[in-house]
């Protein structure tokens, strides 16, 4: 159900255009058998815009009222869902522990969204329940397995097309795990269409995802999205059916990869992308030079300027690995 005066079919078409937004797959100059999928390299900021648009399409198709939407997020999910809500003529609210990054806050507010900042995760869940009980639509990406379907129906077919264009049959597909939907959805589609690949999920070395104990005290150790302080979620539990291996990486490894990438390509990625690049480097050392690896880089890096600055200070004088003699 849409705001008065809006045409449901037209809104769905616009949302579908985001689900179909093609982003580039590029060969890594440093390693000819590694390919990088830049989800932040198109008109959309990143992969969360695809899943937000898809879930809203499902809600509208089912007759769900969406005059106001809400979820828990301080990252690109908030941006994607706030934009999708705006297309449907709806407002949006996001519950977060601590202030969101200024870039994210400004984007969300520019499309009619707002943030509710609370002190801890228990308060966040309670606030979200309050919003849900008032009739607000809450897609809840953490416990909504349709997130997996979103990537199975959008990014999965796109990757398959691009693999054919590059005459590429990857041996490994690497991506940050987060809720798991991105990697699981892509893997489900590709495997259903004949791909024989190993999936590698990546997360912080201190994350709940691989049952580690969070011990980093430095503030940059917390990653928005990957490495959440959250409880286990149903989406991740279901996604594990498609994830063969979890490879933990440290924030400092991610910084180094973020710096190397921004000096090779005219774009940046966030720390989740840096973690994925670090895992791909580790995997390459394990499997040798001939195996083909595809790395999904979820979104752009506008909110990670401080991390890039720190990486420049720490690693800036070291030769980059794609330079001659590195």
From TrEMBL:
The yes or no answer to whether the keyword Acetylation is present is no
Keyword set, alphabetical order: Pyridoxal phosphate
Q: Where is the signal peptide?
A: none
The Tryptophan synthase beta chain-like PALP domain covers which part of the protein?
Answer: 23-299
InterPro entries this protein is in? Cys_Synth/Cystath_Beta-Synth, TrpB-like_PALP, TrpB-like_PALP_sf
Against Pfam families, the record matches this protein to: PALP
Cofactor section: pyridoxal 5'-phosphate
Keyword presence, Nucleotidyltransferase: no
- PANTHER family, per the entry: CYSTATHIONINE BETA-SYNTHASE
Q: Which protein is depicted?
A: Pyridoxal-phosphate dependent enzyme
């Amino acid at each position: 159900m849409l705001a008065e005066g809006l045409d449901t079919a037209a809104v769905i078409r616009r949302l579908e255009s985001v689900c179909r937004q093609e982003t580039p797959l590029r060969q890594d100059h440093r390693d000819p058998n590694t390919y990088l999928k830049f989800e932040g390299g198109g008109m959309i900021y990143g992969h969360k815009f695809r899943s937000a648009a898809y879930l809203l399409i499902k809600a509208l198709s089912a007759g769900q009222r969406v005059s106001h939407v809400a979820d828990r997020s301080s990252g690109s999910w908030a941006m994607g869902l706030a934009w999708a809500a705006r297309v449907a003529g709806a407002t949006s609210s996001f519950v977060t522990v601590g202030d969101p990054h200024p870039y994210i806050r400004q984007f969300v507010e520019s499309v009619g969204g707002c943030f509710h900042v609370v002190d801890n995760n228990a308060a966040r869940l309670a606030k979200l329940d309050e919003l849900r009980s008032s009739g607000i639509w809450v897609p809840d990406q953490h416990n909504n397995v349709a997130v997996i379907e979103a990537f199975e129906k959008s990014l999965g077919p796109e990757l398959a097309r691009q693999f054919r264009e590059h005459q590429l049959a990857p041996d490994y597909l690497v991506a940050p795990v987060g809720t798991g939907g991105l990697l699981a959805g892509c893997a489900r589609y590709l495997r259903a269409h004949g791909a024989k690949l190993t999936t590698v999920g990546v997360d912080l070395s201190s994350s709940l995802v691989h049952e580690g104990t969070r011990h980093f005290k430095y503030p940059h150790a917390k990653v928005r999205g990957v490495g959440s302080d959250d409880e286990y979620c149903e989406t991740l539990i279901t996604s594990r059916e498609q994830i063969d291996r979890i490879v933990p990486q440290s924030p400092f490894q991610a910084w180094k990869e973020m710096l190397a990438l921004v000096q090779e390509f005219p774009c940046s990625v966030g720390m989740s992308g840096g973690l994925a690049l670090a895992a791909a480097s580790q995997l390459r050392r394990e499997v040798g030079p001939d195996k083909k690896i595809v790395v999904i880089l979820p979104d752009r890096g506008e909110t990670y300027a401080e991390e890039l600055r720190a990486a420049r200070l720490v690693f800036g004088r070291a030769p980059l690995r794609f330079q001659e003699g590195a």
